[in-house]
Amino acid sequence: MNETFCQAVQEALASGVPVVAPAAGGPIDLVRPGLNGLLHPPDDPPGLRAAVALLAADASPRARMGLAAREPVAGRAWPAVCAELLAHYRDVLTPASGERAADVIAET
User: Fold this and answer.
1) Shared-domain flag, residues 68 and 81
2) DSSP notation for 12-29
3) Are residues 89 and 69 in the same domain?
4) What transmembrane ranges does the database entry give (predicted)?
5) pLDDT in tens, 47-84
6) Which end of the chain is flanked by fewer CB atoms within 10 Å, N or C?
């Protein structure tokens, strides 16, 4: 997976689908191994195959993980994500006490 925002993982979880993803980047913040999906070492095709095979072979963990899949993304709808991004921008652009906004912008 080379997706920087991790949208495919979020969409799968929001759909109640357990995720198999590399243990790197965004997935490590969203996938809770054994709870809502499985992580495999990055650049490890055998690890990826083993994780997929585990879920494909047994409906029980797939169903259990699917039930828990939505929880980590429940508050990640676009309005919430955009509000969080705007708050980060406000934090960066708000001058510390005693600074002028023009000075803060000039430093960046």
Assistant:
1) no
2) HHHTT--EEEESSSTHHH
3) no
4) none
5) 999 999 999 999 999 999 999 999 999 988 889 889 98
6) C
In a 13 Å sphere around the CA of 54, the CA atoms on its Cβ side amount to 17
107 shares a domain with 57: no
Place of tokens 């490890």: 44
Compute the distance between CA of residue 57 and CA of residue 90 in angstroms, rounded to an integer.
48
Dump the DSSP string for 43-104. T-HHHHHHHHHHHHH-HHHHHHHHHHTTGGGTT-SHHHHHHHHHHHHHHHHSPPTT--HHHH
DSSP state of 33: B
Q: Are residues 52 and 83 in the same domain?
A: no
When divided into structural domains, the chain yields a total of 2
**Which residue type is seen at 33?**
P
Instruction: Kindly give, in sequence order, each residue whose CB lies less than 8 Å from that of residue 33, ignoring residues fewer than 6 positions away.
Output: 39
